[in-house]
Structure formats: structure tokens, C-alpha cells
Write a structure and sequence with these properties.
Elements: E1 2-5, E2 10-13, E3 21-26, H1 37-55, E4 59-64, H2 71-80, H3 84-101, H4 118-130, E5 134-137, E6 140-143, H5 159-165, E7 180-185, E8 200-202, H6 204-216, E9 220-226, H7 230-245, E10 250-256, E11 259-261, E12 264-265, H8 276-280, H9 285-292, E13 301-302, H10 305-331, H11 339-360, H12 365-382, H13 389-406, H14 418-433, H15 437-449, E14 452-457, E15 460-465
Parallel strand pairs: 3-4, 3-9, 9-10, 11-13
Antiparallel strand pairs: 1-2, 5-6, 6-7, 7-8, 11-12, 14-15
Helix pairs in contact: 2-3, 4-6, 6-7, 9-10, 10-12, 10-13, 11-12, 11-13, 12-13, 14-15
Amino acid sequence: MKLYNSMTRKKEEFVPIEKGKVKMYNCGPTVYNYIHVGNARPLVVFDTLRRYFIYQGYDVKLVVNFTDIDDKIINRANEEGVSTTEISNKYIEAFMEDAKALNLYDYETINPRATEYIQNIIDFIQGLIDKKAAYEVNGDVYFNIEAAKNYGKLSKKNLADLISGARVDVNDQKRSPADFALWKAKKEGEPAWPSPWGEGRPGWHIECSVMSKTLLGETIDIHSGGVDLQFPHHENEIAQSETLHDKTFANYWLHNGFITVDEEKMSKSLGNFFTLKDVAKNYDLEVLRFFLLSAHYRQPLNFSDHVMGQMKSGLDRIYNGKYKLEDLLKVSEDKDLTADDQALIKTFDSRREEFEKAMDDDMNTADAITAIYNLVKDANTNLDPGSNKKVIQAGLDLLISLTDILGILKREKEEITDEDILKLIDARQEARKNKDYQKADQIRDQLLEKGIQLEDTREGVKYRRV
């Protein structure tokens, strides 16, 4: 498998530190609000990478952190007149609901909170001070950027340019404008913890370095997140971690592209974001997951209601393919394989190869989805109630195996009674009579999702279960 390493700006063959094992750290949310579609993309993308590693036989350890102490959390707590803990608990609980609806918890994920690692953070900072790579001023502790080797190697930014272009405050106590905070002295109305430098709280960048080290080790296989984290967050993580440990922090850096709305980055600061709670009012979040995998993860992806409708239709096609195979299994017979049977199984195998080839090429989920569509088409075209049960089972097993890697096709088929079908047909007829063709089409699609196909005849509307 080849992955595009942001550090080297090229695709590289993935070779784990330890044979058969993968250690992954993905930067998680700052829990002061509901997560939006842009926040969800790295969660879905790198969960899918984890799933593919598991499919390949790896033992995967994935950490997705919660930043539960931050200026935004403090501001939200002060606005609402509650503690920062209450704010973070509220939005972590909401996150977990969304995450489960996105099928992110089929496998174990480690979700540390920054505030659970305060002593580890203090020890890490003290280690940097001992190496003259950090310094304390009036209760604040800063990383000495001059101590870092090759600062800017991930983002390809030049340190001299960063320093010359930085805004310099009159009362700035940093030695260099590019130095960044590791520990912040307590301010009125803020939560604080005791430390050798006085009461205070950790800076953002140090939290991820410490949680990654504590849970995964000093060098990990993959560090991931949105492309907006590349600088300064990931750059600063590298600087402080590699300065303290004198070894590579992560062997592969993976970054996903932005979600856009009308070709502009989706973000809370721009006010053009859609939370997952918003999306869930109109779509199952499995549809959102399918959308987030519909393009290569490094490319920007434009979000709209129109596109989500297309994604729903595409996912329904795959579901209907699954339901058809399940129904055929109930009526088919087990027979000896004919030459045609063997040829069809070979065709199914070729779809697996297409899927794996796409995923091995820097996790090209767009082409992997095409392979699944092709598999469904093969099954629909070549299988019927008289087909060999062994072949039907082979097609279904493969479909379930491949879609599990993408984290889709988790819903079971909902059985619908004849009485309910007739009620929906009557509602469709009424909509057509009122020339509300959009509603009529929606009812037809709703029935098709449940395996009911309508046929308009001279004698009226007939239906059959497919």
C-alpha cells in the first residue's frame, strides 16, 4: 500500500514500525460546539484507513483525542455561566452520538481528554526546559523555536520568513515571535492546575504530543488530520516532540482536504457550516459517511443538498443489491458449480482486486466505490432465483466484506406490510393527481428502498417485492 506523506510530498510504500501492527493518532475535536461536516471528514477518512489495515490483517491502535481545555471552551463556559467541564462533557456526549451514527465505533478507538494528562504534560514541558528548549516568563512557558531542528519541514515554511513576518506585540515576553506557548499562566475566571511555574493550563500543541507519546510511544506510524492543522499545530507537535526525544515523531503524515460550501472552506468562523445534527434532520448519517468517501481524501469536497441526494440514491443502489442477494439466498438451491458459475465467481474476484488496487493507491475511495457499484451490477445482471446458492453467497460475502471497509451497509432491511404498501401507493396516486411529482417520486423511491418495485399499468398500479 502506498500513502501520500505530507512530509515528503510524495506517495510512499507503507512500512509499519512493528510488523503486523499500526499505531495511528488523529487530531480530534475541540469540544465547545457540535461537530460540523468539515470536522467529520478526517474522522471518517482515517477510520476507513484503519478498517482497511484491519482487513489486511494488521492490529491497529487508533487514538482520537478530545481537546477539553481551550480558549473557545473557556469562552463558551463563561457565556453560559457553567464550568468548562460541563461544556466539554456536553459536547463529548453529542460527539459520541454523531460518531456512532457515522459508524465510527465498530472497532475500539481510544479517546483521551487533555485534562486527564496534566501531569504528563508538566513532565514533558520540564524535559524541554531541562534541554534549554523551553523557558518560563511570569508563569508562562514557551518553546524556544531556535532549539528545533528543521522547523517548517512539514509545512515547507521558512523559519526566518515566519519570524520576520510575525506580528510583534509591545509587551510580548517571548524571545522570538515564532516561539509558542507550552503552558499558560492562570487568568481570572479560568480553570488552572498547579505546576512548577505556578497555576495555569497547557497550550494546545503540547496536549497532542503528550497524549500521542503516552498512549502510542515516542515514534508512531501515522499522524493525521485536516490540512488546516499542518501549520502551526502539526509543525509545533513535531518541533517539541522531536526536540525532547531526539527521534522521528511520526513516519507518515496524512492530511485530508477541506469541505467547501459554494467553493469556500466550511468553518465555524465563516458561519457557513452544517453540524451533523443539521444533516441528520434530512439524511441518515451513513449517507454523509458515503459522501465523505466519494472523492479522494486529499481533494476538496463541495457539500450541498443536491449532492447529498445523489449520495443517498447511490447508497440505496448498493443496499438494494444487498437485499436482492439476501432474498435470492432464501429461494436458491445449492448445486455443483458450472463453468458459468466459476466464471461469475472469477468476475466477483476481479471486483475485489479493483477495490484493493484503489485502496492501495493512497486510499482512493472514489475508485473503490466504483468497484462496489460494478459488483452490484454483476450480481443484478447475472443472478436470479434459479442461480447457484454458492455463487449468490460468494457475491453477498464479498459485498459485505468490501462495504465494511468503507463503514457502510450497516442497516438491516425493514420489512413492510402489504397494508402499508397500499397506503403509500394511494398517497403517491394522490400526489400525482395534484401534480406534485416530486412527492410521488419520493414515495416510489421510499418503497424501492424497502424492496418494493412499482409498475404503472392500464389496470392500475401493481407492485412486487424485489
